[in-house]
Structure formats: C-alpha cells, structure tokens
Design goal:
Layout (H helix, E strand, L loop, with lengths): L8 H12 L1 H9 L5 H13 L1 H12 L2 E2 L4 E2 L3 H30 L8 H11 L1 H5 L13 H20 L6 H29 L4 H4 L3 E5 L2 E6 L3 E4 L3 H15 L5 H5 L5 E2 L2 E10 L5 E9 L2 E9 L9 H4 L4 E5 L2 E8 L2 E8 L4 E8 L3 E8 L3 H9 L3 H8 L1
Antiparallel strand pairs: 1-2, 3-4, 4-5, 6-7, 7-8, 8-9, 9-14, 10-11, 11-12, 12-13, 13-14
Helix pairs in contact: 1-2, 2-8, 3-5, 3-6, 4-5, 5-6, 5-9, 6-8, 8-9, 9-11
Length: 389
C-alpha cells in the first residue's frame, strides 16, 4: 500500500482504503509508524480543509435558505467562519484523540497516543470527504450519514489499534462519542462568540447561545433544546457502568406480560417483541377502540444502557407550540419525558423514561394526550424494576 504521507496518490489511496475496505486497512494502519504531528499535518489537515472551503464557496454562490429568505454572508464573514471551522476541526482531532487515549485502558485496552490519533484521524475521513457537499448548502446535512459511518469505522478500529476487547468496543465507542458531541457544542459556542464579536450577525446566531451559573453551563441548541453540560460527567460514568456487561437484556416475552389486556376502554388487539442482541429488547402492543388505535411500546436499552439516560442526565428541555399542536421535552426527577400532540388529527406521542434504561411510549389516536399518558402509567414500573434485577 502506498505511503499515506506521500504526495499525490498516497493520501487519496489511504482515504479510499479506510472508507471502502476498513477491515483490511485497520491492521495495516496499526503496524505503521506515525506521530500525531504527521497524522494531522500530512493527512488530516488536507481533508479537514475541504469542508470550510466548500462551505465558503457554497455560501457565496447559493447563500443559506431560511423560511422566508436567503441569507448570503459577506465574503469577510465567510472567510472568518471558514478559518474558525478549520481551526476547530484540528482542535477536535486533538481533543477526541486524547479522550480516546485516556479511556482506552478504562475499557481494557492500551493507552497509546499515536494509535489513538490514528484511530480518530482515519475514522473521521468519511465526514471530512463529505465536506464537499458544503458546495450546495442544502445538501450539507447529508454529511451526517458520513459521520455515522465514521462511528462504525471507530468501532471497527478500536480493537486493532487500542486493543479494546471486542465485547467492550460498543461501550468505548459510545463514551468517546459523547465526549466528541460535547466538544462540538463547545467548538460551536467558541466560534459563535468570536464571530459575534466580529459582527457576523445571523450566521453566528445560528450556532447557538450559552448561559452559565456556577459550574453549570447551559447550551441552547436550535431545534433541539437546552442542554445542561454540568451533568456530562455523570452521564458518561453511567454509560461506562452500563457497558461493563452488568445489565442483561430482558426477554421480550417477559416484557409482554406487563401490557394490560385493556386500557380505558381500548382493548389489546396485537402484540409483538423483537430482540436486538446485547443492544436490548423491544416489545409492543396495539390497543383499539372503534376507529381509534394506539401502540404501547416498551424498550429495554440495556446493551447501550445509559444512552437512553443521556438526555435525562443532561437535562434536555425543548418546547414548541402553535395552533396545530405542540412538542415538549423535559426532565422530571432525572428522567426524560417527551410529548407531542396534534389538535387537528387528535393523535400524539408520550414517552416516559424509567430507571435511565427503559423507554415507555404510547403513540397514536386518542381523545387527548392524557389518554396516552395514562397508557404509559399503566405499565407497572415496580414489576419492570424487578425484571431488571
């Protein structure tokens, strides 16, 4: 295989190999001598720059389409944003690699800094290459798919590079991902603050806002809600504990015993259950009354444990309402609640998190959201806790 640091085809060939043939490429990467500096300057940087440059060109040619208008930043604003994106991209690589190095031995692996940088740099390759989609701003969100593939690459590579046992690779990937998400929020906040000081207006405002109280930092993420980042550490420890193999998925047939035969005049007409291996179990029942029906779903997310609890532990809140209905997300006693209601169709969803592991959801047609809430409350949480022991 060509030297990935060689000019011309070397870098391109390595990028293609890690994306198209990761199973064969990770062992090769593991055996190569490389320093963090070389990985950043000779491989990562040429790929990181793709996104900011494409976004700069796209914003000048097409602008950003909003609901009633198109916003086209000035050239100076675009250049400033591109520069900060480039800098924060490099910072992201360094911090995520250091986090991966720190966590490796906590999951039974080896704390090897050059290997951690290899893992992060090559796992981010799909996202960096997808940065070219920034040429057309409306397509830039497709880069999310590339990011998800990057998670798969990270999962595949953590064993050959950092010697994380295969049965702990999911947990290691999840915990490191949480750190990456927090980093991205922080990077957005820093960029927004500096851009705001430079008078970048709307473009900076779209990145978010922050307010602090003591050690608690609250991040407002547009379209998602408010995050209390002071609880990140607790959420991470919770996820680590859950991925140590202590929690086993509850059998679907056992979950089905918790569904009542009838609920407020609605009769249970169907049930099903699906196993997702170590990821958990899902059971569902359908309830019908005349021409109305709703589904009651119970999910045990044992395998990734606290991923179900991250939102609650971090204090996610969100509220949106108009004449047609509303959407609300909040945290009650450390557990998430999510509800949606459509006034016109008389249907909605209510989800309640239980014990930072289970999610109970009622979704469908009803006279009011209160009926869906009552359906969720009908699941005996005491019995659920007993099954989890």
């Amino acid at each position: 295989m060509d030297n990935p640091y060689a000019p011309g085809g070397g870098l391109v060939q390595r990028a293609k190999s890690i994306i198209l043939k990761p199973t064969e490429t990770w062992p090769v990467v593991a055996g190569e001598p490389a320093t963090p500096g070389d990985l950043i300057t000779r491989y990562a940087l040429p790929l990181i720059v793709i996104g900011p440059i494409a976004q700069l060109i796209g914003s000048q040619l097409f602008g950003y389409n909003m609901i009633f208008a198109t916003y086209r930043p000035s050239l100076m604003s675009g250049l400033t944003t591109a520069l900060f994106s480039l800098v924060m991209g490099v910072v992201a690589v360094i911090v995520i690699a250091l986090v991966a190095e720190f966590l490796a031995d906590k999951f039974g692996g080896t704390a090897d800094r050059p290997a951690a940088f290899k893992l992060v740099v090559y796992s981010l390759t799909p996202a960096w290459v997808a940065g070219i989609l920034g040429l057309i701003p409306m397509l830039a969100t497709l880069g999310i798919l590339a990011g998800l593939y990057g998670l798969y690459l990270f999962y595949q590579g953590c064993t050959p590079l950092l010697k994380v046992p295969q049965d702990k690779a999911v947990g290691f990937t999840a915990v490191t991902t949480i750190a990456a998400i927090v980093l991205m929020w922080t990077a957005s906040l820093v960029t927004a603050s500096v851009a705001g000081a430079l008078g970048m207006g709307m473009g900076a405002a779209a990145l978010g806002s922050v307010g602090s109280s003591g050690d608690s930092v609250q991040v407002n993420v547009p379209g998602f809600g408010k995050i209390d980042t002071s609880k990140i550490d607790a959420a991470t420890k919770q996820l680590q504990a859950a991925t140590n193999g202590q929690a086993k998925p509850i059998d679907g047939a056992q979950l089905q015993t918790l569904f009542p035969a009838s609920l407020n005049g609605f009769n249970r007409t169907a049930m099903e259950a699906n196993a997702m291996g170590q990821m958990g179990t899902e059971a569902e029942a359908t309830y019908t009354l005349g021409d109305k029906s709703f589904r009651l779903k119970l999910v045990d997310s044992s395998g990734l444990g606290a991923l179900a609890g991250i939102g609650g532990a971090m204090g996610v809140t969100h509220s949106q309402e108009d004449a047609d209905g509303y959407e609300r997300s909040n945290t009650v006693d450390g557990q998430m609640q999510i509800e949606k209601w459509n006034n016109k169709n008389h249907d909605g969803t209510f989800t309640q998190q239980v014990a930072s592991r289970f999610m109970i959801t009622a979704e469908g047609e009803a006279d009011s959201i209160d009926q869906l809430k009552a359906a969720v409350a009908a699941i005996d949480q005491g019995k659920l806790a007993e099954l989890a022991k």
